[in-house]
Amino acid sequence: MTASPEELVLMLYNGIIRFVNEAKQAIDDKNIEKAHNSITRAQDIVLELMSTLDMKYDISKNLYSIYDYISRRLIEANLKKDKVALDEVESLVSDLKDTWGKAMDKVRAKVYSKG
């Protein structure tokens, strides 16, 4: 793969959303092990996002707080097999993904308008 770091972040957001949806379906199917595994994979992605932030920027500190909240909600969702918590996580990550995508588009537009 030759994805840029920015595209990798979008892929990670998509991964969280995919695993959250898998977990919700597993909860519906009463497949507790699959729900646990899917939520754990989503948690792993969130932890990866947290660990790669450059904390010298204010935006990174803000993102860290959001990721930390998402991580805690995933833990709660996993303990209780709580679809409401998973819906909240999906909504938050979808908003982050949309915002990130728009920021990437703006940067690309500036780069190409100068080129």
Can you summarize this structure?
This protein has 115 residues and is mainly α. It is 86% helix and 0% strand. The protein starts with a helix and ends with a helix.
**If you average the pLDDT, what whole number results?**
95
Please identify the top-level CATH class: Mainly Alpha
**CATH architecture descriptor:** Up-down Bundle
Tell me the fraction of residues in β-strands, as a range.
Answer: under 5%
Helix content: over 70%
SS element count, helices: 4
Distance between the termini: 25 Å
Nearest-angstrom radius of gyration?
16 Å
Helices and strands, in order, run as HHHH
Structural class computed from helices and strand pairing: mainly alpha
User: What is the CATH T-level topology?
Assistant: Four Helix Bundle (Hemerythrin (Met), subunit A)
Low-confidence parts: none
- Largest sheet entry: none
Q: What shape does the CA trace take? A: elongated
What is the CATH homology-level superfamily?
A: Flagellar protein FliS
What does it look like?
It is a single chain. The protein is an all-alpha fold and 115 residues long. The chain has one domain: Four Helix Bundle (Hemerythrin (Met), subunit A), CATH 1.20.120. It is built from 4 helices and no strands. The relative contact order is 0.14. The mean pLDDT is 95.
